[in-house]
Amino acid sequence: MIRTVVWNENVHEQKSQVVRDNYPDGIHGCIAKSLNASGKISATTATLQQENHGLTAQRLAETDVLLWWGHAAHGDVSDDVCDMVCDAVLSGMGIIFLHSAHFAKPFKKLLGTSCNLTWREAGERERLWTTAPNHPILDGVPHHFELENEEMYGEPFGVPEPLETILISWFEGGEAFRSGLTYKRGAGNIFYFRPGHETYPTFHHDTVQRILTNAVLWAHNPQQRIADVHDAPNVPIEKSLEPLTQRGAKLHREGEDGFR
Amino acid sequence: MIRTVVWNENVHEQKSQVVRDNYPDGIHGCIAKSLNASGKISATTATLQQENHGLTAQRLAETDVLLWWGHAAHGDVSDDVCDMVCDAVLSGMGIIFLHSAHFAKPFKKLLGTSCNLTWREAGERERLWTTAPNHPILDGVPHHFELENEEMYGEPFGVPEPLETILISWFEGGEAFRSGLTYKRGAGNIFYFRPGHETYPTFHHDTVQRILTNAVLWAHNPQQRIADVHDAPNVPIEKSLEPLTQRGAKLHREGEDGFR
Amino acid sequence: MIRTVVWNENVHEQKSQVVRDNYPDGIHGCIAKSLNASGKISATTATLQQENHGLTAQRLAETDVLLWWGHAAHGDVSDDVCDMVCDAVLSGMGIIFLHSAHFAKPFKKLLGTSCNLTWREAGERERLWTTAPNHPILDGVPHHFELENEEMYGEPFGVPEPLETILISWFEGGEAFRSGLTYKRGAGNIFYFRPGHETYPTFHHDTVQRILTNAVLWAHNPQQRIADVHDAPNVPIEKSLEPLTQRGAKLHREGEDGFR
Amino acid sequence: MIRTVVWNENVHEQKSQVVRDNYPDGIHGCIAKSLNASGKISATTATLQQENHGLTAQRLAETDVLLWWGHAAHGDVSDDVCDMVCDAVLSGMGIIFLHSAHFAKPFKKLLGTSCNLTWREAGERERLWTTAPNHPILDGVPHHFELENEEMYGEPFGVPEPLETILISWFEGGEAFRSGLTYKRGAGNIFYFRPGHETYPTFHHDTVQRILTNAVLWAHNPQQRIADVHDAPNVPIEKSLEPLTQRGAKLHREGEDGFR
């Protein structure tokens, strides 16, 4: 069982009746339920309002894959939690960023860019096209599928060139968008998935649920986590792999830590 | 003329006689001089000790390419300057990170990873091999060249998979390393170049100077800078490119800014 | 001046009045004229019907960038010319494949995949979106532009993950497509540009002409061509860069050519 | 069980006593045995001398992952078998190219480049360094390991920029090389692994065996094969996903096949 945590800021669910109607158990509850139905994933949830946003170092160490949904409260996520999440990714935890999480702190930190885009909330039709058939994340996904009501996101999307572009979207209003992008940072697999606006029932959609389940399986790196992702050890001359004699000037004393 | 700034923390030059002997005008002075000799580049310098580290928003707006050398004082670089530099890169400024700048704040911020590595200061031989012949940065560079004394950097190097790997190093003590890496972030071209330890005369080496000159020409994006790299504009329904009618529920009022 | 050849199979121009009306001087003539108008490019043309398809080894050696349009007669291109073109690309010639050249022999050979897609010839609206703002190929190109009548190409497009995806298309009939893709093979830069169906006046469109001019400038590698792209030289032990003594068994006699 | 075929040209085993001493059951037999020991792989073998080189369309359809070793007889592999193998890869079969298979027909066809390199057969020490820690292919592999006697391969290696560079080599004689490269072509995962010269016992080395076992698990795409990788279907107007009316001129009659 892949240990998975669905993180949600859980703000709109408290304030908006339409969001509550779509997701009576919260977006996090809806997604976790569908992941658990796969039989291969053991998903729990965490929310912004919990202590430490529900994400201790201990819990992250025991999380194989984290999903992240946020929108109205990106700024309320503490920098410490953001740093912990990013370090966990570098050490091997998979992470899936959903929709408006393009502006989430850990997304921006892991990618290093502004992650901006254009947008329109008109409930228009979105049709997603697969560009990488038989990619593990697209297992069982048809070449195209539709979401009758979605928010529009438009290019240019301010992200680095991905490892793979696996989905692109067509919007009723005339835009196109790169909607499924994979990255790797350190030992961690990253997937960005565009759909998922809170005012529409996107996370109840069969194909969306299938993609997220596939994405968790894909993002899971079963190897032991890297212990210290920031380690930059000195290799002493006397332990060099080939015979070596000190030459030239030296700044560091033998065994001294490097600068940071 | 490509407007270039060579930034140097300029710390070891003040403290170490051997560094001062290698670089009487500072590492920044040595590099700027060699770039200016190309006839295509107009290089000036900036250092940590200057007000605002010598890097105002105005100066960055008028800089086509920035080179960055740092080692002992990464932590003394202000977060504000780091943010300004990264935004300038996203808007189209090229940037070249040299050697120990793998731990520089803007490098880590732009790449989003820990950028760690192993190291040994033994003055050993480094031999660099080109892996992308006829890459613009390698114009006139032989398939291999040697630096008789260099610090060793060893893999794994904690950076994202680059756009291109163009140089790899062989070290006398038995290590190998990816020494020339290109990235693009926003509209900005990024080059990481491994050699350049301050206790050796690396930046006086003909081929190193040639590579840095080539890299400045390559990194230069002559297009007008992107005005606001964080802009995420709403596209109103009435301005949609295809006919569109509002459907479904809405969270945002028309014309309202998006969440961040 | 960048020495450029616009290659066209020039078949529909002979058979179809509508194509002749769009391109009285042939697609090749129209494109060459617009490239020459840039003042930076010296473009000539070549067609399938000419001896050797107009492409001798000598001419390719003196060509900086080749553009390729083909559709009905891919199979009539000789394998020898295809091989010559591909070797020229590996040695440093830039190449731009236009529209239905996705099935051209050199495109398939350079990419190694089937390059298949879905299609519909309905004269529908295509809107192209830039996904890499300030990319050299997109200099002066707005974030989106429209072609009122184009053939539709649909995903999945059977090509390798590109170096960069710089344009994606929206189609009136509901499809989306990756329409501007960059690759590098050997020392040669490759650009695939989707629009350009012969029954529409696409190559008269200002923005299309601008993109093609930019693409020629981008694809141009000014360095000296690689002499023999297939060379795999033996490095004799006595010329090794570090001291080396023969150990273990040997299959090859010293100085012998390797197997192929 | 992952259905795996180890293909070997099996030429040196017949002619050279030293190769026979290293691999009494052939290189293919040695590799298949070690893969089978994993308990997750069911490996059989095929050789050049067998009818159709042991590779029928039926057998390839039932092969999850193919390993390929060749050296002296690349030219004896039939173009038909090469085409079948490449189509199988595009449809989803994984493939692992070993050592001198850098010049194998299917490797060159899938990558589209010359795949050349420099070489020296001196039995020198090779040390491989991992550049992508915790990559699935490197599960359980230390940051570096040594092969006391190997053939040297030197850069530049004439291959496209890979999806990932996961191993680089240090050679006693002074060269460095990108020794573990991943690619994806169509639905097929591709891994190139450098070591494996026939005059040395490389495929008996524990870490090499571990890497190859990992690589088979990684390359395996469990999804149903793509039926026709060359299919380029017309989408009729009356079946368009959005309402569409024929506009402009048409070259093709409705329902007609596209050109190739």
Structure described in brief:
The structure is a homotetramer of 260-residue chains. The first copy, chain A, is α/β, with parallel strands linked by helices and 260 residues long. Helix content of chain A is 23%, strand content 28%.
Written account of the structure:
- Four copies of one chain form a homotetramer.
- By secondary structure, the first copy, chain A, is an alpha/beta fold.
- The first copy, chain A, has a single domain (2-219), classed as 3-Layer(aba) Sandwich (Rossmann fold), CATH 3.40.50.880.
- Chain A has seven helices and nine strands.
- Chain A has helices at 12-15, 17-22, 26-36, 57-61, 79-91, 105-111, 206-219, and strands spanning 2-8, 41-47, 65-69, 94-98, 118-130, 144-154, 164-171, 176-185, 188-193.
- In chain A, strands 2-1-3-4-9-8-7-5-6 form a nine-stranded mixed beta sheet.
- Chain A starts with a strand and ends in a 41-residue tail after the last helix.
- At the A-B interface, helix 5, helix 6, strand 5, strand 6 and strand 8 of A face helix 5, helix 6, strand 5, strand 6 and strand 8 of B.
Structural key phrases:
elongated, nine-stranded mixed sheet, Rossmann fold, 260 residues, alpha/beta, 23% helix, 7 helices, homotetramer
Please describe the topology of this protein.
The structure is a homotetramer of 260-residue chains.
Chain A: E1 2-8, H1 12-15, H2 17-22, H3 26-36, E2 41-47, H4 57-61, E3 65-69, H5 79-91, E4 94-98, H6 105-111, E5 118-130, E6 144-154, E7 164-171, E8 176-185, E9 188-193, H7 206-219
Summed over residues and divided by their number, the pLDDT of chain A gives a mean of 96
Order of helices and strands of chain A: EHHHEHEHEHEEEEEH
Rough shape of chain A? elongated
What topology, given as strand order, has the largest sheet of chain A? 2-1-3-4-9-8-7-5-6
The CATH topology of chain A turns out to be Rossmann fold
Number of strands of chain A: 9
How widely separated are the two ends of chain A?
39 Å
Indicate the CATH class of chain A.
Answer: Alpha Beta
- The name of the CATH architecture of chain A is 3-Layer(aba) Sandwich
Oligomeric state: homotetramer
Q: Which residue ranges of chain A are poorly predicted, with pLDDT under 50 across at least 5 consecutive positions?
A: none
Helical content class of chain A? 10-25%
Most residues in contact, chain pair and counts: A-B, 71 and 71 residues
Structural class of chain A: alpha/beta
Q: Largest sheet of chain A at a glance?
A: 9 strands, mixed
How many structurally independent domains of chain A? Answer: 1
Total helix count of chain A?
A: 7
Over the alpha carbons, how many angstroms does the gyration radius of chain A reach?
Answer: 21 Å
CATH superfamily of chain A: Class I glutamine amidotransferase (GATase) domain
The proportion of residues in beta strands of chain A is 25-35%
